[in-house]
Write a structure and sequence with these properties.
single chain; 559 residues; alpha/beta; Rossmann fold; six-stranded parallel sheet; globular; binds thiamine diphosphate; binds magnesium ion
Length: 559
């Protein structure tokens, strides 16, 4: 039998070590699903929404040590549903290959059923859109897509596959994967960083996304660097697991809106080293620290893509390299004896960080203070668990009261797309076999993609989902109050929720409920004992405690 393009595409994916593909099936790519039936080592995970499938593939792209995750979606409606994952991967510098079905080649341009021009549609949320027009291009295009997704600043790449191409006879050989090129740090740059570090009195070291690519491998060396050079280490927004929160060199979490006492101290720094961090609006406190375009302190940035460094900030020492190579380069150079001032600087930042971790929340009348749940969860979540978080104010309690460990894996949409947590937890449970996946999510986010609990049940994985149900889009209420004091517009944020316990059970999940603080311990013990199906922990949380830092000034009237 002649080999088809569909079969060759499957062979090409296998050649790239792809063992999981997240999809929602479509008639536009039947020839690929048909071929995949002959590849038992590739697990086709059928999801309930392309947004969910895309988030799962994006999460996978963060768990494969720099290798891309893969989603497979149908044309028009499928592709547009999946765009939230492309947006997330583009902003988060996550390698992702999205295969998208397309109309037949002869119909292109006729406004055929569900036709889109993907080069135009996806031009601003992908690194590239490659359309396979001829069978001879099929395998090479797959190799090019992975290469682009994984090199430089990683990101999403779309491959467009016309419906009629799958059955065409394959041409040419299966194209092998291309090695990802990585520029190394130059010796003179390493010498210069070492000199800057030796002369700085108050250095700050931010660690971010590109270091996360190395998984746990980088942890030991980062710790040695911190200790040998007497450095405070600050994980950046949504990368809290990069440094152990209990480590004495922890310099404070550089997330969105760093609390005042911490940011005031951080701003006394005379040197900032961004190790594997692209930097963004959120991390830079809305471009104020470091200030854009002209930073108020000496800035060194290490990122694997020369084009990116210097795009927003004028960096004093740009180093286009793998951050781990820079860590190794510094470890190979002798750290000077730490001055007393330097030791005080590190311990001072650490003292502020520790103070912020101290559990001190008020008992609320309108529901459980979610801070209490996050602090208790830290005692139940295993050391090797994956923790995922949706976007929303409930996550401020997680970042404040949950001391992350380097042995844990944290996954979220860094750019703040709601709906990421549940699908990412499903993907984590599938990728990290026999390790727990725990999702933190709000009542807004859970009804965006919580239907992927059905995927978890189908695939036999058992994430624990901790839901903060404050009956509102709390984040937006807080911002509204902040911008228009005294004019809280509750109709814009109030939510009428289903009976979440019944909802979860209807999927075949287990469900436990927390309505008062004294139920937290028992409910979490019960939830974490269940390992054969997903578990929802429904927390009736306070809306008045708007975030881990702020209360609402006006009560939220009943719906
Ligand atoms: C997909 C998406 N839509 C809208 C927003 C804007 N947004 C940010 S947080 C938020 C509310 C989140 O509500 P919930 O999940 O209940 O968490 P809470 O803030 O109440 O803790 C909204 C609507 C977003 N970030 N992502
Ligand atoms: Mg809410």
């Amino acid at each position: 039998m002649t080999k088809t393009v569909g079969y060759m595409l499957a062979e090409s994916l296998a050649a790239h070590d792809i063992d999981i593909i997240y999809c929602v099936p479509g008639e536009s790519y039947l020839g690929l699903t048909d071929a995949l039936s002959e590849f038992p080592d590739i697990r086709l995970v059928v999801c309930r929404h392309e947004g969910g499938a895309g988030f799962m593939a994006a999460a996978d792209g963060r768990m494969r040590n720099g290798r891309a995750g893969v989603a497979l979606v149908s044309r028009g409606p499928g592709a547009t549903n999946a765009m939230i994952a492309l947006h997330t991967a583009f902003h988060d510098a996550t390698p992702l290959v999205m295969l998208i079905g397309h109309v037949e080649r002869k119909d292109v341009g006729r406004l055929a059923l569900q036709e889109q021009n993907y080069s135009r549609l996806l031009s601003d949320i992908t690194k590239g859109v490659f359309e396979v027009i001829e069978p001879i291009q099929a395998s090479e295009t797959i190799a090019r897509a992975f290469h682009l997704a994984e090199s430089g600043t990683p990101g999403p790449v779309a491959v467009i596959l016309p419906e009629d191409i799958f059955d065409a006879p394959a041409e040419g050989p299966v194209v092998k994967p291309r090695a990802v090129p990585m520029a190394g740090p130059r010796a003179e740059d390493l010498d210069q960083v070492a000199e800057l570090l030796a002369n700085a009195e108050r250095p700050l070291v931010l660690v971010g996304g590109a270091l996360a690519t190395h998984g746990e491998n980088a942890s030991a060396e980062l710790n040695r660097l911190a200790e040998a050079w007497t450095l405070p280490i600050s994980p950046t927004h949504r990368r809290p697991h990069l440094f152990d929160a209990e480590h004495p060199n922890y310099g404070g979490y550089m997330g969105i809106r760093v609390p005042k006492p911490l940011i005031e101290e951080m701003k006394k720094a005379d040197l900032m080293i961004c190790l594997g961090e692209r930097m963004s609006d959120s991390i830079s406190q809305s471009y104020s620290f470091p200030a854009a375009p002209e930073p108020q302190l000496t800035m060194v940035q290490v990122w694997p893509d020369a084009n990116e460094i210097g795009r927003v900030w004028r960096v004093d020492l740009p180093i286009a390299a793998d951050p781990l190579a820079v860590i190794r380069g510094l470890l190979a150079r002798n750290a000077p004896e730490a001055t007393e001032a330097r030791k005080r600087w590190v311990s001072g930042l650490n003292a502020i960080h520790r103070k912020l971790l101290v559990p001190e929340w008020d008992k609320m009348e309108d529901g459980v203070n979610f801070g209490a749940v996050c602090a208790a969860a830290a005692r139940h979540v295993p050391r090797d668990a994956a923790i995922t978080s949706d976007a929303g104010n409930f996550s401020s309690f997680l970042h404040r009261y949950f001391p992350f460990k380097q042995t844990q894996c944290f996954l979220a949409s860094v750019v703040g797309a709601m709906g990421a947590a549940v699908p990412m937890a499903v993907a984590a449970a599938l990728r990290r076999k026999n390790k727990r996946a725990v999702a933190f999510v709000g009542d807004g986010g859970i009804l965006m993609t919580g239907n992927e609990i059905a995927t978890a049940v189908r695939e036999g994985v058992a994430p624990v989902i901790i839901l903060s149900d404050n009956s509102c889009y709390g984040t937006i209420g807080m911002h509204h109050e902040g911008r228009y004091p005294g004019r809280a517009y509750d109709a814009a944020i109030r939510l009428s929720n289903p009976d979440f316990i019944a909802w979860a059970k209807a999927f075949g999940a287990a469900a436990v409920s927390i309505e008062t603080e004294d139920q937290i311990e028992g409910a979490l013990t019960e939830a974490f004992a269940i390992t054969d199906r997903p578990v929802l922990v429904h927390v009736k949380s306070s809306a008045m405690q708007a975030s881990a830092w702020r209360k609402r000034t006006m009560p939220l009237p009943a719906a």
